[in-house]
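Q: What structure does this chain adopt?
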Amino acid sequence: MSISIYDFSRPPIAVALSIVCDYEIKNRKVNIPDEPLILVSNHLSWFDIPLLGIAIPRRISFMAKKEYFHSPVHAFLLRLYGSFTVDRGSVDRTAFDQAAKALQDGRALGIFPEGTRSRTLQLQQGKLGAAFIALRSNPVILPVGISGTEKIRQKYEGKKRLFYRPKVTVNIGQPFRLPPVNGKPGRADLTKSTETIMRQIADLLPEDYRGVYRHNGH
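A:
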């Protein structure tokens, strides 16, 4: 994919998103290093993907569930921006290899650690995949919390008036790295690292979006 396609697409996508919602990007000036990066976020709607694309100045390759590719429109857009599928029902080694290559190429890798869109709108228990990839290559991790995108579809389901523009917030956190582990990470290491990642995301969400990460602090 040519970087120019990604860059040229940002202004029209930003305009289109401003029509369907009233979005705010918090902490847009966070210093995001120009090195291998994993972006981790909660997931409420398909709109999360283009919103993250305009909020983060780096080119992002998303690990997208293969179900997204059943839609020709979604498949075209995802492939256009260098994204790839992951089979959530198995250990998808091809997807992990593609993720490793994205990081080796210096790209930003976008992962929704919950593994799917949250139907309850609450932050779900994180899967181990993001931590597994991060512990293999020690990239910088950028947490993001998104709230409000679930309301956009109400507009198109006839539940809200045509000119309804729900408030959407993209809250960018501080980049961090996971503590290194000795040798090959075991399940306990992956679980602990996943907890760290999910807590970072939860801290960027309103209290009523934090789900299973709502009560206990760090």
